[in-house]
């Protein structure tokens, strides 16, 4: 059975984010095809997609390589997220469905419970799910796609420290949902802007001199049908 290219793309992207494929490293079709257990055709398609997303570059005499973003490019990502996350929340206040609200409220309840228990691993995953759902509630596929790519790239370029006060952190999530539920776009925008600003303070560059180097996590090989990382 032919493995779809988007599954291969997800697997390669996840490995780039995790640091398995190092910045500047070559990505040869033959090696990738063996690693993920597929033919070279979906690998070739996946590399084209990843190049369009900015994770891969094509170099003369070297072929496809993992991109090497600059510190300025990394900083731009946080600035873009600070502008787009509040926009998404404002639109969600006008366009969300009851299904979106149900998921968001459930995530807030679970996040608050985990925060009180001090389970940081669960909190990181739940936060990613929360912001993904909030973006989907905006009713804008283009905005949702852009925010998803931003989260992937930020997870690739930055190590993230947990919030100093997880309970307060999840109270902010709850305030966002309350504003969205009331249809208060301006309140949703302002609360999300503050939340995003505070969250950005816990990011440390994984490369360069701006915030020191952080060791990459080298994950073991995984099959292409594993769930995608939520940055």
Helix content: 55-70%
Low-confidence stretches: 211-231
What overall form do the CA principal axes indicate?
A: elongated
Query: Major sheet: size, sense and barrel closure?
Result: 2 strands, antiparallel
Protein name: Transcriptional regulator
GO molecular function, one term: DNA-binding transcription factor activity
Keywords: DNA-binding, Transcription, Transcription regulation
Pfam families: FCD, GntR
Structure in words:
By secondary structure, this protein is mainly alpha-helical. It has nine helices and four strands, in the order αααββααααβααβ. The strands form two sheets. Strands 1-2 form a two-stranded antiparallel ribbon. The chain has a two-stranded antiparallel ribbon with strand order 3-4. Helix 1 crosses helix 3, helix 1 packs parallel to helix 7 and helix 4 packs antiparallel against helix 9. The chain is elongated and about 55 Å long. The two termini are 30 Å apart.
